[in-house]
Amino acid sequence: PLRSLAPEAVAAAVPALEDAARDVRALDAAGRRLDAGAGYDALLRRAVAAVAAAPPDTLTRIDRVRLTEILAGPEAALAVLNAEAPAAQRS
Fold first, then answer.
1. Which residues contact 29 (CB under 8 A, 6 or more apart)?
2. In angstroms, what CA-CA distances link 40 with 14, 21, 85?
3. Is it the case that residue 39 has pLDDT exceeding 90?
4. SS3 letters for the chain?
5. Are 3 and 52 in contact (CB under 8 A)?
6. What percent of the chain shows pLDDT beyond 90?
7. Buried residues in 21-58 as b, exposed as e (16+ CB within 10 A)
8. Considering the chain, what is the average pLDDT of its residues?
9. With a threshold of 0.85, does the pTM exceed it?
């Protein structure tokens, strides 16, 4: 879905994407309380993969990091941040 939107449309949709990501995490937490976490793990992995696969001109680096943090936690977000850091910052 992100691939089919114009960059301006995605930029305008980022707050809604963050809200949806929070809703998915809340659903995941509820599912885990009901011992149904495995299905939500797959859903979260697909959502993180969709964020990672978004073309660079749709989501900014910080948007990808923030959405990843909401969906998969701070360690995953840090990995995205480090992977996308300019080469000069990694050295």
1. none
2. 22, 12, 29
3. no
4. CHHHCCHHHHHHHHHHHHHHHHHHHHHHHHHHHCCCHHHHHHHHHHHHHHHHHCCCCCCCHHHHHHHHHHHHCHHHHHHHHHHCCCHHHHC
5. no
6. 24
7. beebbeebeebeeeeeeeebeeebeebbeebeebeeeb
8. 82
9. no
Residue-wise pLDDT for 53-90, tens only, equals 888 788 888 999 999 999 999 999 999 999 877 755 65
- How far CA 58 is from CA of 9, 26, 48, 54, 90, in Å, comes to 8, 26, 15, 6, 24
CA distance 27 to 83: 28
Nearest-angstrom CA–CA distance, 63 and 36? 29
Report in angstroms the alpha-carbon separations of 69 from 6, 20, 62, 87. 24, 13, 10, 22
Question: Which amino acid makes up residue 25?
Answer: R
